[in-house]
Amino acid sequence: MFGRKNKRKLHNHIDTLIGVNTGITGDITFSGGLRVDGHIIGNVSANDDDHSTLVLSNEGSITGKISVTNIVINGTVSGPIYASGYLELQTKAKVYGDIHYGSLEIQLGASVEGKMIHYDAPGTKQKQTEKMVTLISAAPNQQPMTSESEEYTSTKMR
């Protein structure tokens, strides 16, 4: 009513916690909410596709593939991420791998080294569209480097 859209809600409570001093080697499958403050070497996936949520704190890290509907990251991930619902990259998030997302929020300070691929229909894993992201330097005298700007510069200097 009144123009409000029904937004898919994140699973708002944590069912499982992996503490700061905990390290796990091996794949993890969970349902509900999972918070990771420790370190995981292995794949992380959720059984409950519609309501699963993963929260990775700034002290946590995951090395492996993540496949969860809703994800909030403030730590380090080395591997591909599949978030068919919602993905939030907070200020200390560092991602080294491709990101597949339905809905995306990136806060200032987060970094991604990989492709960002948008799901055409949020909540589906089949249909995807790859979109190119161009990063522009914040330095005032630098311009993005493209083949066209290289030709323009070399022609202008002759």
What do you see in this structure?
With 158 residues, the chain is mainly beta. The chain has one domain. The protein is 7% helix and 41% strand. The chain is built from one helix and 17 strands. It has one helix at 147-157, and strands spanning 16-18, 23-25, 28-30, 33-36, 39-41, 44-46, 53-56, 61-63, 66-67, 70-73, 76-78, 81-89, 94-96, 99-106, 111-113, 116-119, 128-130. Strands 1, 3, 4, 6, 7, 9, 10, 12, 14, 16 and 17 form an eleven-stranded mixed beta sheet that branches. The chain is globular.
Defining key terms:
disordered C terminus; 158 residues; 11-stranded mixed β-sheet; single chain; globular; mainly beta; disordered N terminus
Compact summary:
By secondary structure, the protein is mainly beta. The chain has one helix at 147-157, and strands at 16-18, 23-25, 28-30, 33-36, 39-41, 44-46, 53-56, 61-63, 66-67, 70-73, 76-78, 81-89, 94-96, 99-106, 111-113, 116-119, 128-130. The protein has one domain (16-132).
